[in-house]
């Protein structure tokens, strides 16, 4: 049929047929002001808006379903496991027996999901400020449905600081799954020295561990907030471990910082043994060796972290481009 | 609330809040290989595929709902009236009493809709080769629902040439609402001298008029196919009128050519009078003066058309970038 | 050689070889906030900055060399003739014998170049506020070199209003080649009723004509400033003629308005005769018929202009997206 | 001055002033068919073309000067040190006393530059097939000027296989700095088992080490060619070490594979000691710990490499999107 040959003809002129056809619809993110990252789109599945932010669930070609808040990718189906396994498991595995966990932010539900895979965990409190985001994710993120229904999970809609101060109980692990600290941004107070000292530490049980997502940690991007979060935490805790992993959909290496007043003693083998004992199902990304690699930073980043002198206090904060209000969708602080 | 000030803060760093927020999702079309036209997207409403082509209905910010076939915009809610009023009304208005109309292609339904606004029209035959496109448009293009239900409309799924040859009746007006003529493309045979002579002309009643969309007609782009379609028609018909109009969503001026063996006698006032008499509802774009302006081409285009020597025959055809298989979604010829 | 077959192999996977190779470097302009227009780039020829604005000369694939000010295309080699012939010739041709011309803005030099093609013109005053732009264009715009050297051209660096008020002489034609009127923008005072009444009109000789570029004039975009410039001028002058033309590199139809207290009497033939008599060389775009077509607006635009009630006064102004400071590069007013 | 306030005004409408101004010129790379990576451009410094490929030197905002071959980024000023330190130093440092080095490809000169920093190196043979690329880089890549002048460097323009077969001498280290292996591409024969066995291994001195760039090594992208290069090398050499690092300008983690018939014995401290002894100047990226981290792959990649069964032979090859002809600019094989 001529139609077919006609179509083929076109491929010589810049368009490709069938599989190879040029994509027409794109999601575009400004990683920085002069750097863009664009995914071909299959569809825009759902959009919504809360009091605080715009929410969208996109179906992207390279990374599957992607949750986007205020024009910033929060997590993509295909590789969110890297972020969430890295955020949750190192702290829970290094703890001898974590039973109670508090999540600051985390409204997406994926952090809770990873925590709930730990058989020894009895109670998870997830405190996010944005109810609509929580509801949106409950409705649309199929991968987290089971977690949202787990009776060990207690969701509370509140500012994380207010909630921690209000509660009388302590936790074995506190996890910060919040937007990056931007001066004037909604979350930056949740990264300050005084917050860690006066609010977080008093709410950790003996031997408790605090871990927080810590923004981009690439060879250049780690100076945005990672080095400063690290330096702030080492003012407050005796043992502080920064680590990082490349997340394809973020087009960058990402960082986390784990902190405690008790030493982190589990080695590679011990971590693998605890994974086997404690975690239901199999991790896709994190095991003992992965953590060993992740916690050895490259020379460039290591030197820069060593030399970092800035500390987040109420009066200081660094900017991370665009990830402002949003980077992790959880706005736990008003 | 801090969230708000946080949001505002961001706007100083490249992002804009609320209304002014940077758009994340875009539809992108390659007008030419080195020229792109991009609309911000609200959503991707429907997608589908036929035996011949991919179909999508997008909700775009600048132009409303947009029908896209094989990665090429077919028509956009906000300005398709310019294309369809220009294609249909000049021919029907110049004809003294058009009762029967044949549409080659036109599966979108908008051409039929404009024809059916003429009270004197008794019968419209729309012949499109792609049933799925017709069904898609029937289902999703709300503006054409009424037209699709009009009992005067007869839809037939066939190659336009085969259909015209098969039928014994003649028509007052025959309208070509087809993809542009591309060598090897599905429609180029429907623009050849022999097709016009042997198939179209014999199916026109005495005083009948043929009109066809004729591709881009901009100062530069008119040489792609417009001048050649014009020149081909003037080999076959005594009176040939090329005209054009700028269509914002196409990012170009578009062309049509009207042809007959009877002279086109209606002047501006007569056209306006006939519009009042014959057409239900009010035209948004076309009236006597609009047509007067549209049918006076600029010096650059006029000279170029005068000098055109190429004629579409089975063995020749010109290329129009990308608009290949698709430009008007109707593939009336296999 | 394998290299070749290797290259061919790739073309099946999305890249095209040689001529058809995918372009890597692009110029991107936001026509509106949700509409982008992108040209493939060959090179970035020159960049500069003045006290007022950033200047760049790009070599684009679709439109040749392009002058860009503050991220907005000013004029492109391939089609600037449409803008400049349309701005200059209708006014000069309708005037019985234009000898002295004043250009508000026009630092690019192309407006002067078209004026200087008129043999009867004795003196052209070009008043632009930005010396660096004038110098940049003098250096790099080869097409205007001869014009910049013409002894009839007098360049003065000043605010156009101040200059017109300072001067005692009158002119046969005054031409506004300025950025669009944006509230708070640098040029909007040069589009107000009081400016036209108190500054422009007193500087026109008997029978003098004023003409100004008037922003986008598309079916939708004409409401941004075109209709209001038209309506403001008809408060001040007895005879006002709006006209428009599609300019491919602008991705829109553009508008101009010509105004006088003497009637515009030259018809199509008379215009053609005067072109022959008065203009050196041949116009590429404008002749009698082109102007006839350009000055008959489509129904949609005509109705909208008729109904326009807004008048630019010091206290009002309409917004035209992005073309703010810049659209025509000439900032004749501080 | 109004101009200034005018400019500020605009920033509320989508454009940003001065520093924050929206960028107009972009370099765009298709990482994959549905994934784009775009840098704002300051300028296009030089362009050229060889018999094999197009060459450009761009000045990008996020990554400085960038060498682009056939539309694919080869290396960017700001982070090419990660790629080149990772390619060169692990092999040279693990070797007890590397004196003679052969580079397959490497026309850019950066690989040679890193090798020449080793004081014990006596002779470097760089064999690239594309003389124009070598000349272009010699002329324009300032960072490599000194290296190109080093008398220890011997540049030869030839196919790497032909050159290795022609020579009678052996080398302490052979380095593959070639485009990725794509079926039908120019370099894929330089990644086959038979090439390693019959051409590379016989040209290594006792204790010699072979190392090659090995394509993307991200959590998903490592299956394109990295795992297969690794698996092919372990068919041929007794000791094979895959390692990786995130390279910001590539928007991905990149991989290298080091192979030898002698064990790799240097530990972290030994590597650091050798760096101090042997290397002139200071590494920015690579030290003992960096290599320790780089050579522990994440669980996901490790498992996938273990299970890899494919071996590159003359008859097999995997595709890596777009990086086809080009990824490393050196086309050492015809």
TrEMBL record, chains A, B, C, D:
Alphabetized NCBIfam families for the sequence: MFS_SpdSyn
GO biological process: one example: polyamine biosynthetic process
Catalyzed reactions: S-adenosyl 3-(methylsulfanyl)propylamine + spermidine = thermospermine + S-methyl-5'-thioadenosine + H(+)
Annotated PABS domain residues: 24-261
UniProt-recorded name of the protein: thermospermine synthase
Coiled-coil spans in chain: none
Residue positions of the active site: 177 (proton acceptor)
EC id: 2.5.1.79
Similarity comment: family membership: Belongs to the spermidine/spermine synthase family.
Keyword Iron-sulfur set for record: no
Species: Nelumbo nucifera (Sacred lotus)
GO molecular function: thermospermine synthase activity
Record keywords: Polyamine biosynthesis, Transferase
A Pfam family matched in the record: Spermine_synt_N
């Amino acid at each position: 049929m001529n139609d077919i040959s006609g179509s083929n003809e076109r491929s010589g002129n810049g368009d490709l047929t069938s599989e190879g056809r040029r994509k027409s619809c794109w999601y575009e993110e400004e990683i920085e002001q002069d750097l863009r990252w664009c995914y071909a789109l299959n569809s825009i599945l759902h959009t919504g808006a809360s009091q605080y932010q715009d929410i969208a669930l996109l179906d992207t070609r390279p990374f599957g379903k992607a949750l986007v808040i205020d024009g910033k990718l929060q997590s993509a189906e295909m590789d969110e496991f890297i972020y969430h396994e890295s955020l949750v498991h190192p702290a829970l595995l290094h703890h001898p027996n974590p039973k109670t966990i508090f999540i600051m932010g985390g409204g997406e539900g994926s952090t809770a999901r990873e925590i709930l895979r730990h058989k020894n965990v009895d109670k998870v409190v997830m405190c996010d400020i944005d109810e609509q985001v929580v509801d949106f994710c409950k409705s649309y993120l199929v991968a987290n449905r089971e977690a949202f229904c787990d009776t060990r999970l207690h969701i509370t809609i509140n500012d994380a600081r207010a909630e921690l101060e209000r509660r009388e109980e302590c936790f074995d692990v506190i996890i910060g799954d919040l937007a990056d600290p931007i001066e004037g941004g909604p979350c930056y107070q949740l990264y300050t020295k005084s917050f860690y000292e006066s609010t977080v530490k008093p709410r950790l049980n003996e031997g408790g561990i605090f871990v927080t997502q810590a923004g981009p940690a690439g060879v250049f991007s780690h100076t945005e907030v990672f080095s400063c979060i690290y330096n702030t935490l080492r003012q407050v805790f005796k043992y502080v471990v920064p680590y990082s992993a490349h997340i394809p959909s973020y087009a960058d290496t990402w960082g986390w910082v784990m902190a405690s007043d008790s030493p982190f003693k589990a080695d590679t083998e011990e971590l693998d043994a605890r994974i086997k004992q404690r975690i239901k199902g199999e991790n896709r990304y994190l095991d003992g060796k992965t953590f060993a690699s992740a916690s050895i930073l490259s020379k460039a980043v290591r030197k820069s972290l060593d030399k970092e002198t800035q500390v987040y206090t109420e009066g200081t904060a660094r900017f991370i481009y665009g990830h402002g209000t949003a980077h992790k969708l959880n706005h736990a602080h008003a």
